[in-house]
């Protein structure tokens, strides 16, 4: 082992090895009060993890161990399962629900991504902001322009960040300047797959925006892509807003429901990630469960657009389990912070009368999302052999949090305080592929 390539950090560590929605918490939780993690910057993997007293004596004296101290908590880097990087410049656009919000704000802003320089500028702001928030990986929409895909993958490569992204395909119900066709969508997606998929850490994602903006012809083209690339991720939206669900019924009168539209084109499968899914019926949830498709839970967006509140516990039913990932859904979402996303997720769960603990929430933002995206073998856990993507939290990031933490009686309460009160200020450092890419100091 070349010690020059090793980075080592020390502090309390929280990770999960199984899903606490389905198993006893004691069989899921990994918590070490004083641990060391050794990362190899060459392979980008975690090479050692254990109690400090066991690891320190095994380390070459030349390796400097950065100690974050007792007020820190080291967690797997947060993963955002659903986000639109081009919407960075329009976060906090007032007053509309989904369809008007798309027409009046989103479709205007996305036209600017024809200009590659603009796309690069936004990609840089977006990724830097993610890293400031301890988000080390994301599944992001681009725009209809292939250069917007180049921009995010090129920028992510600078940080060696694992980004999953794809060109948005849409050939109706949007401004002319944002439309492709079935054939162009197929050809441009294929060219981008050949250019980017598997290059470094980049993963391509087949990306029909949502059923209302694709003709049946274009959905056929998406089916062809999906069939040609059976292991590739797919991302789109489903059942976010009541008016949207009614519109899909009008556009596809033959289909049983919204999910059935996608299922006809083989788009509901493992590694397909559906934004929102708030209003899915029992029949549709059965289809999600049978196929292994995932729902991306984006509570800040759902409250912001007045879409509703997903009942995560209903999806996490052991009789028909559905994968759930956490997402910010910026720019409808209102925060890059996964802590703030967990905060709003708790309120969504309360509105459903089905709350879950802070430990469940931290699971969802890490391993839960990694598993939902079919990346659980690489991301979402602090463990030997996993990708070395890590966030270091400061548990006393503001005066009120510092004060409140004095009264935290256990780990669960400490985490609940963090997810309720903390935000980007709580991230003291972010590591990607074993290297420090952000430090608060
Ligand atoms: N449905 C289709 N496109 C979008 C989008 O950009 N944001 C959200 N929240 N929902 C969508
Ligand atoms: Zn979205």
From TrEMBL:
<dbReference type="Pfam" id="PF01979">
    <property type="entry name" value="Amidohydro_1"/>
</dbReference>
<dbReference type="InterPro" id="IPR051607">
    <property type="entry name" value="Metallo-dep_hydrolases"/>
</dbReference>
<dbReference type="InterPro" id="IPR006680">
    <property type="entry name" value="Amidohydro-rel"/>
</dbReference>
<dbReference type="InterPro" id="IPR032466">
    <property type="entry name" value="Metal_Hydrolase"/>
</dbReference>
<keyword id="KW-0479">Metal-binding</keyword>
<feature type="domain" description="Amidohydrolase-related">
    <location>
        <begin position="74"/>
        <end position="437"/>
    </location>
</feature>
<protein>
    <recommendedName>
        <fullName>Guanine deaminase</fullName>
        <ecNumber>3.5.4.3</ecNumber>
    </recommendedName>
</protein>
<comment type="pathway">
    <text>Purine metabolism; guanine degradation; xanthine from guanine: step 1/1.</text>
</comment>
<keyword id="KW-0378">Hydrolase</keyword>
<dbReference type="GO" id="GO:0008892">
    <property type="term" value="F:guanine deaminase activity"/>
</dbReference>
<dbReference type="GO" id="GO:0008270">
    <property type="term" value="F:zinc ion binding"/>
</dbReference>
<dbReference type="GO" id="GO:0006147">
    <property type="term" value="P:guanine catabolic process"/>
</dbReference>
<dbReference type="InterPro" id="IPR014311">
    <property type="entry name" value="Guanine_deaminase"/>
</dbReference>
<dbReference type="GO" id="GO:0005829">
    <property type="term" value="C:cytosol"/>
</dbReference>
<comment type="similarity">
    <text>Belongs to the metallo-dependent hydrolases superfamily. ATZ/TRZ family.</text>
</comment>
<comment type="function">
    <text>Catalyzes the hydrolytic deamination of guanine, producing xanthine and ammonia.</text>
</comment>
<dbReference type="InterPro" id="IPR011059">
    <property type="entry name" value="Metal-dep_hydrolase_composite"/>
</dbReference>
<keyword id="KW-0862">Zinc</keyword>
């Amino acid at each position: 082992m070349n010690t020059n390539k090793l980075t080592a950090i020390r502090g309390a560590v929280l990770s999960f090895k199984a899903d606490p929605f389905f198993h006893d918490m004691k069989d899921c939780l990994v918590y070490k009060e004083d641990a060391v993690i050794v990362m190899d910057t060459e392979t980008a993997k975690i090479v050692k993890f254990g109690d400090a007293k066991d690891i320190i004596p095994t380390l070459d004296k030349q390796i400097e161990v950065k100690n974050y101290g007792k007020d820190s908590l080291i967690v797997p880097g947060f993963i955002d399962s659903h986000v639109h990087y081009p919407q960075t410049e329009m976060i906090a656009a007032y007053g509309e629900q989904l369809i008007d919000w798309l027409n009046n704000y989103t479709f205007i802003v996305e036209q600017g991504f024809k200009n590659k320089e603009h796309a690069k500028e936004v990609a840089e702001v977006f990724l830097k902001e993610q890293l400031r928030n301890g988000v080390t990986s994301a599944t992001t929409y681009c725009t209809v322009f292939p250069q917007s895909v180049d921009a995010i993958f090129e920028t992510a490569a600078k940080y060696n960040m694992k980004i999953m992204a794809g060109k948005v395909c849409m050939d109706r119900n949007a401004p002319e300047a944002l439309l492709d066709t079935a054939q162009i969508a197929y050809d441009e997606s294929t060219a981008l797959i050949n250019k980017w998929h598997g290059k470094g850490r980049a993963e391509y994602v087949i990306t029909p925006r949502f059923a209302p903006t694709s003709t049946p012809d274009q959905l056929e083209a998406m089916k062809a892509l999906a069939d040609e690339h059976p292991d590739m991720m797919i991302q789109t939206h489903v059942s976010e807003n009541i008016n949207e669900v009614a519109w899909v019924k009008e556009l596809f009168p033959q289909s049983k429901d919204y999910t059935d539209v996608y299922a006809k084109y083989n788009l509901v499968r493992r590694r397909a990630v559906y934004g929102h899914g708030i209003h899915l019926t029992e029949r549709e949830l059965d289809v999600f469960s049978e196929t292994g498709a995932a729902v991306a839970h984006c509570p800040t967006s759902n409250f912001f657009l007045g879409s509703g509140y997903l009942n995560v516990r209903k999806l996490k039913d052991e009789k028909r389990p559905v994968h759930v990932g956490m997402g910010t859904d910026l720019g409808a979402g209102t925060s890059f912070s996964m802590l703030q996303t967990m905060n709003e997720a708790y309120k969504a769960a309360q509105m459903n009368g089905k709350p879950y603990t802070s430990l469940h929430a931290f699971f969802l933002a890490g391993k839960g999302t990694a598993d939902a995206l079919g990346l659980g073998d690489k991301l979402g856990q602090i463990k030997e052999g996993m990708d070395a993507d890590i966030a270091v939290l400061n548990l006393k990031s503001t005066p009120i949090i510092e004060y409140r933490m004095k009264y935290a009686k256990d780990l669960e309460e400490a985490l609940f305080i963090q997810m309720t009160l903390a935000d980007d200020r709580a991230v003291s450092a972010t590591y990607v592929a074993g290297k420090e890419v952000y430090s608060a100091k």
